[in-house]
Amino acid sequence: MKTYQFPQGFLWGGATAANQIEGGFHEGNKGLNIADVLPGGKERLNILMNPGFDFEIHHDQYDYPNHEAIDFYHRYKEDIALFAEMGFKAFRMSIAWTRIFPNGDEVEPNEEGLAFYERVFDELQKYGIEPVVTISHYEMPLHLVKEYGGWRNRQVIAFFERYTRTIFTRYQKKVKYWMTFNEINSSLVMPIQGLGFSIQKEEDKYQPTFQAYHHQFVASAIAVKACHEIIPNSKIGCMILYAPVYSFDSHPENVLYALQEEQLFNYYCGDVQVRGEYSSFMKRYFKEHNIELEMQDGDLELLKEGAVDYIGFSYYMSRTEKKEKSDEEASQGNIIGGIRNPFLKASDWGWEIDPVGLRISLNKLYDRYQKPLFVVENGLGAYDKVEEDGRIQDDYRIDYLREHVKAMGEAIEDGVELMGYTSWGCIDMVSMSTGEFSKRYGYIYVDKHDDGSGTLERKKKKSFYWYQDAITTNGEKL
């Protein structure tokens, strides 16, 4: 079996999000965020995307699994000890904005929230685990959504700057690696999670979405500059949902369509955050869709000055497209779909499994930007069964992860500069898209179920030991 040489200091670890693991949604003076009003169940995103959604909690209609999640808020020491046992070099996590500024627009931060994350960082430091912190991960303060209209309002930039400067200052000796907005490009499909508003039926979808994006780009650039100023040795990146787009066939119209879909979804945000400018493709796109961005003097210069240090991205699947497609051809995916690829198998949730696509993605991103890359999400959501003897034999997950790690090894041989790998859901948690516990990604099983039952006991899966070996040998033993 071929062995791979991963760089010394490679950041092996796992990834989570505050709103999917913490729980304690009303503790520590935390304010409500978008995730707190998300009901559980397969209709979750349909409810959220409905223009009539009222952003309220309705206990008489829905369950809210995020409210307790897996109780990391109280059990973080136990979980971090398990991460350390696996050998983690890094732990990707997010800070809940509403733990620091409960409404988002306060002048003074919430000390209880700041102290909680300080304890988490200290616990990671005890084991030599580097925190990789996402500043905003699908949990915008609900007050900013209701009172300001989310990111379409330029005032939110100032609130975000106050928030980022607060956490950079407080944690400057504890956190080196940062990312601004999680899967920023996902708002092209689902603006409510990242931009903080739904598109109304009577509203033109293009203008508000791309105006909100501009505000977010400016806020990201301000955060990058502040991070470099406050923490001189820091590294701060963007975070993109990346899925290479394949043409269904060699018909030139389909090839062109796939290229345009890739330009819009995969590169629009990266070009602004990494290169510091809007691409020529987007300038034509704006013109053709009658989009006129309102900018202030100095915005374009700021985007250049606030270019990120590295590119973090999630990779779960590739995407196959053709210009004219029927509903019968459609495939499911991570926010984005496409059409079914006859050469690929799919997961229990319909996501097509394509490890070669990760190698393709790494090469494409590195060729385009020539900046370090960081795979900060990748994993297999699946149904796991606890055997009578208590074991969880998740060989299917090991097979999935092994092939994707091999693809990273091949990309490194191709010349790609890769910083690390934090696989998604290193511990079972609430699914973002469906609010389910049964969609499990972790190396660590959490006894919590879709009906709300469970003890929250943690159990090591077979993949726990596989990943432990992979990290110990720096990727040589897979």
Per CATH, what is the topology? TIM Barrel
**How many structural domains?**
1
Morphology call: globular
Q: In what order do the strands lie side by side in the largest sheet? A: 1-2-3-4-5-7-9-10
Count of alpha and pi helical runs? 15
Radius of gyration: 21 Å
Q: Any idea what the CATH superfamily is called?
A: Glycosidases
The overall pLDDT, averaged over residues, is 95
Helix/strand/pairing class, anyone?
Answer: alpha/beta
The CATH top-level class label: Alpha Beta
CATH architecture: Alpha-Beta Barrel
Helix content: 25-40%
The termini sit apart by: 9 Å
Q: Note the main sheet.
A: 8 strands, parallel, barrel
**Percentage of β-strand residues:** 5-15%
What would you say about this model in short?
Helix content is 38%, strand content 12%. With 478 residues, the chain is an alpha/beta fold. The strands form three sheets. The chain has an eight-stranded parallel β-barrel with strand order 1-2-3-4-5-7-9-10, surrounded by five helices.
Report on this model:
The chain has 15 helices and 12 strands. By secondary structure, it is α/β, with parallel strands linked by helices. The chain has a single domain, classed as Glycosidases (TIM Barrel, Alpha-Beta Barrel), CATH 3.20.20. The strands form 3 sheets. It has an 8-stranded parallel beta barrel with strand order 1-2-3-4-5-7-9-10, surrounded by 5 helices. Strands 6-8 form a two-stranded parallel ribbon. A two-stranded antiparallel ribbon has the order 11-12. Strand 9, helix 14 and strand 10 form a beta-alpha-beta unit. Helix 3 runs parallel beside helix 5, helix 9 crosses helix 12 and helix 13 (about 355-370) packs parallel to helix 14. The longest helix has 25 residues, at about 205-230. The model has no long low-confidence stretch (mean pLDDT about 95).
